[in-house]
């Protein structure tokens, strides 16, 4: 009888362990962890390697110069880069992009911000489920995020045909565009909880998931996110050179 009771107790403990929900920490990637944009680095390498023609650069060169001269918006630069990628990725074999992404990540995966890199390590040690949510190509994210300890990554998934060549279309674009939807999906699939949750983002596109978490952190925010953060009294953290401080 005692043995049977012990077995039942162990079974109940096992069920409770399986049902236990993990705390989640959700991070944007570009400009929040990576000190650049994964897409920018991938496209530059595709042009350099001759996978994309030189004319691809013309689609974003003007916006890049305006951004570098602080006369334009970074969002406009990224949008031009996305357009160039979507247009010229058509017909490229998946393996070519995967190899380029691997090369770029081998070269640059350590080019991260100290604050978010250390925060990831701290949360990993506390058994948080680390979730990356980004609009960068998932092919690049899958080679970058695991090196930093992420458990799950959501990114833009570009469609391929039967011969594994890109069509230029984005799969479920409406889903990846809404980071709150992605967070809810991850919570349901991975048995997570928003209790004591943490979110880190740097632009207004991250507001959707920052509104959901217990502890939102705006890291090196752009103007729109900064203004929203001050209204909401969210934590604002800035890393400049070798100094990390709060506003």
From TrEMBL:
The keyword Chaperone does not apply. Its cofactor is Mg(2+). Keywords: Amino-acid biosynthesis, Hydrolase, Magnesium, Metal-binding, Serine biosynthesis. Pathway: Amino-acid biosynthesis; L-serine biosynthesis; L-serine from 3-phospho-D-glycerate: step 3/3. One of its GO terms (cellular component) is cytoplasm. One of its GO terms (biological process) is L-serine biosynthetic process. One of its GO terms (molecular function) is magnesium ion binding. Its EC number is 3.1.3.3. This is phosphoserine phosphatase. It comes from Candidatus Kaiserbacteria bacterium RIFCSPLOWO2_01_FULL_50_24.
